[in-house]
Write a structure and sequence with these properties.
Elements: H1 13-25, E1 36-43, E2 50-51, H2 53-66, E3 67-81, E4 84-97, E5 104-116, E6 122-131
Parallel strand pairs: 1-6
Antiparallel strand pairs: 1-2, 3-4, 4-5, 5-6
Length: 143
């Protein structure tokens, strides 16, 4: 049996990421609440900012009502400086419409800021995503 997401280890940035992915896979947006700071804000590519815990949970609830989401994050760099951590990497998602239809796979750059609370737990404080550049045509990629 798996531990509830809200009881998940959040003592490292990687463990927060694992708890996030588990909450989304479990289709449980409320399990994201302990993973976010009270002043959480994310700037997603080409959409208005998403500000606050409730807004983030409501947005994920809406997405999960429409799609089955498989989400992952490939960190390129993690820097920890005191009670702050910064991660940059590539977020990958496959979304499949709940009502049927072909899955869509997408990838984007992500920059994440985490803050460690007085309880020793890391939480997401800020995030920003941006699309990846188009792939080079076959045979034209550089060395």
């Amino acid at each position: 049996m798996t531990a509830p997401v809200d009881a998940a280890d959040r003592t490292t940035p990687a463990s927060v990421r694992a708890a996030w992915v588990a909450a989304v896979a479990a289709r449980n947006p409320d399990a994201l609440r302990p993973l976010l700071t009270d002043d959480y804000e994310v700037w997603a590519n080409a959409v208005p900012p998403l500000c606050g815990v409730d807004a983030a949970i409501d947005a994920m609830r809406g997405a999960l009502a429409r799609y089955h989401i498989e989400q992952g994050f490939e960190p390129v760099e993690t820097v920890i400086a005191g009670d702050w951590a910064f991660e940059r990497g590539v977020e990958r998602m496959t979304v499949t419409p709940v009502g049927g239809g072909p899955p869509q796979t997408m990838a984007q750059r992500a920059f994440l800021v985490l803050r460690r609370g007085a309880d020793g737990q890391w939480r997401y404080a800020r995030g920003m995503t941006n699309g990846l550049p188009p792939a080079a045509p076959s045979g034209l990629a550089g060395p």
